[in-house]
């Protein structure tokens, strides 16, 4: 597996990790209410949850590809359509205010409890399942070596954990949080454009 392929996986997953969703909102809310340290533990759980989804997709569908190679083509079409749809949604709603409403959370929680909350939030969210089961796999050749699988899971852990640690840091600081919210439309349009380009590339290759 080439460095270019791993780089493509890195960026397409980073864009997915950064897209607004329950995990990002929970990281933001936890840091606002409980501080940066607690947000970091939650981010670790979010990363682990993403790794579970990615591992299930990698090792489950790799066997399916051997039995039904035509499924890869179908996944590419579905993945490209999903990328373009997600890009459209991000671009269209880039100017919408970020919904910060979350259920009330207990103020005192242990690190293991926060990690588990992150994992369970990811596992209960259908978006990672769709992403890892379609788009993610279409960037990975069925004959990828074992070391590539380990590297890919490392990328997933790094991206999901790293982004949510950054979110935790941003939302634990009032001034930085305000600046981030002011740039929300720009950030979402940039990543919406990136997702659209990746979707077109996927559909045409």
TrEMBL record:
Keyword Protein transport: no
Predominant location category: membrane
Pfam families the record matches: LysE
Organism (species): Thioclava marina
Localization of this protein: Cell membrane
Official protein name in the record: Transporter
Keyword Ribonucleoprotein attributed: no
Transmembrane domains' residue ranges: 43-63, 70-88, 146-166
Membrane-related topology note: Multi-pass membrane protein
Keywords from the UniProt entry: Cell membrane, Membrane, Transmembrane, Transmembrane helix
């Amino acid at each position: 597996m080439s460095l270019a392929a791993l780089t493509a996986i890195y960026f397409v997953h980073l864009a997915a990790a950064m897209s607004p969703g329950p995990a990002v909102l929970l990281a933001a809310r936890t840091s606002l209410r409980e501080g940066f340290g607690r947000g970091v533990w939650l981010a670790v759980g979010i990363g682990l949850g993403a790794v579970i989804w990615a591992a299930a997709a990698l090792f489950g569908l790799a066997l399916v590809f051997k039995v039904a190679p035509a499924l890869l083509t179908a996944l590419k079409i579905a993945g490209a359509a999903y990328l373009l749809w997600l890009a459209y949604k991000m671009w269209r709603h880039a100017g919408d205010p970020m919904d910060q409403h979350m259920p009330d959370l207990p103020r005192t929680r242990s690190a293991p409890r926060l990690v588990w909350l992150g994992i369970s939030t990811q596992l209960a969210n259908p978006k990672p399942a769709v992403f890892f089961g379609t788009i993610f796999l279409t960037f990975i050749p069925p004959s990828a070596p074992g070391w590539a699988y380990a590297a890919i899971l490392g990328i997933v852990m790094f991206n999901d954990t790293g982004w949510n640690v950054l979110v935790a840091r941003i939302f634990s600081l009032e001034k930085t949080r305000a600046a981030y919210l002011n740039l929300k439309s720009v950030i979402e349009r940039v990543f919406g454009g990136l997702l659209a380009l990746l979707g077109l590339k996927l559909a045409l290759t």
